[in-house]
Amino acid sequence: MIAEYRKKHIFAVAELMQKYGEERGYTKSQCNELYTLGLLHDIGYAFLEEKDYEKHEVVGGLFLKEQGYKFWQEVYYHGVANSPYQSEYLDLLNLADMHIDYTGEYVSFDERLQDISRRYNTKIEELNSFKVVQELKAKGYK
């Protein structure tokens, strides 16, 4: 079962992804794809116990692959620095995911990283999320 606070994050990511698509002039169909991807990006949490949450991307991606979902790789590789798979949809997913906190509020990269660091008791520079943000910034995303 996905926790209520996580649902807020998921829906806000989906809405932000749709907005990104609209801003980029994507078709309605593409914007719907982005929204759906946002809804599905954390589905792996539904199959895991809390101690295994760090595997949610892989578990969710593989589940969606089995279901024949077109964008399973975006789920599988979201939040992964130096991913061997690259796509604009993956960039937009990482961008949205790193701008929506666990309560569903829009935050800056720095605020999101501080929150993750605090929740996982890890230095910001040691977070994989920190590396993902650095990659996004290098690609020109803000």
Keywords:
142 residues, 0% strand
Question: What secondary-structure arrangement, pairings included, does this model have?
Answer:
Elements (H helix, E strand, L loop, with lengths): L3 H20 L4 H13 L15 H11 L5 H6 L10 H10 L11 H12 L7 H11 L4
Helix pairs in contact: 1-2, 1-5
Overall description:
Helix content is 58%, strand content 0%. The radius of gyration is 14 Å and the shape is globular. The N and C termini lie far apart (32 Å). It has helices at residues 4-23, 28-40, 56-66, 72-77, 88-97, 109-120, 128-138. The mean pLDDT is 96. The protein has seven helices and no strands. Helix 1 (4-23) packs across helix 5 (88-97). With 142 residues, the chain is an all-alpha fold. It has one domain.
Summarize the structure.
The protein is an all-alpha fold. Helix content is 58%, strand content 0%. The chain has one domain.
